[in-house]
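Appendix B. One record, verbatim.
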Amino acid sequence: MSRLVIVSNRIADPRKPAAGGLAVALGDSMKKTGALWFGWSGKIVEEADGGTPGEGKVHIEQAGNVTLATVDLCRKDHDAYYLGYANGVLWPVFHYRLDLGNYEPGFAEGYRRVNELFARKLLPLLKPDDQIWVHDYHLIPLAANLRAMGCRNRIGFFLHIPMPPPLITAAIPQQDWLLRTLFAYDLLGFQSDADLTNFSHYVQSEAHAEALPDGRYRAYNRTVQAGAFPIGIDVDEFTRLGESKESMQMFRRLREEYSRRQLLIGVDRLDYSKGLPQRIRAFRELLVRYPENQNSATLIQIASPSREDVDAYANIRHELENLCGSINGDFGGLEWMPIRYIHRTVARKRLPGLYRASRVGLVTPLRDGMNLVAKEFIAAQDPEDPGVLVLSRFAGAAEQLKEALLVNPYDVERTAQIIQQALRMPLDERRKRHEALLRRIKEQDVHWWCKTFLETLENLEQSQPAGDADY
């Protein structure tokens, strides 16, 4: 059986409970075959006098039968590759926010340089029959770099964030080069059918790719297969987490503290893609249009810190704090505050209890690749008395979770109406919707996602040998 090689911007020790979603997702596959996980160490080192940027040694650590291999980045490379092109250009553009991009000319060169570095450091660690799985927007050109160095292994790529329409993607500096590098992969995975459709339109309009049967596309003397592989959660693991001491304590405390209230919950990173100001405005509209919710409905909004040194993130935090303060000032009193705004990370082991105690879960991003909070909210509910998920139609999860109440987060008035519908939904309807949603997230859980992608990669007929295409 081929060894699995995972490449991502950051890695995690799969033995640790807080290793993160990707470690959980790939854990079974890594244990079966043994694995190599390669990425950035998270360390920024200062350049030595006369030294070459980013040319530090590879750090190797063994975690059971998984080899963890990392490289450090110098400040120049980190700022151009990570802060610059990856998060200053690709992140906003892929989330449809061209206005927030920072299109400094040097960023693309830094992005190229670090991807070349990753390929150069990874190549000596590879075995001939390894299957390589590259993750996310930080490393789009990695396969092209490996191919140019003679790598003939099967290589798959999964994009965790949305794939925008062609005219938006075309705004990326050096997008023609970036597009060409995608054809160095054997398999491309996207979160949703909508993302896959955008990719199909993009490569046919920009690269004049030939669409072949079975989701294959040919351009630049290479053929790549593309498909939708919606990522899931480990439902059983999250259910067990909900039975833990910390989770049950959180549930009981909230049920006791808010015994006369209806809780609404939002859990997000503080990011402009999450639609947080629009959500808060919709909650204000709920209180105005349906005054019976005053002194009754309480929104707990957790907005975990994220990239606070970037102006766009500082601005949204300021806007959010002003909105929450204004609503609490206008509607709140000594007995009740409409919004509890929390700008810090809440321990994951407490989240199931928080979700379970809430009558409504608000997951209303302006654009999201998938959004696993929606699936966690479903998994945490009591099937006998479940809460209602209000979900943005612009989250990738909306394709699967059709029994949720879908909203357009830009339409504040309509969103308020849908939230009211959720708060007033009869028990029988809540049960039916939850039963269907729970069944679907169990069928397409994180293990299904991993297994389906890797089996598809393994069963592909490989494209042309390395060196046949010009990247």
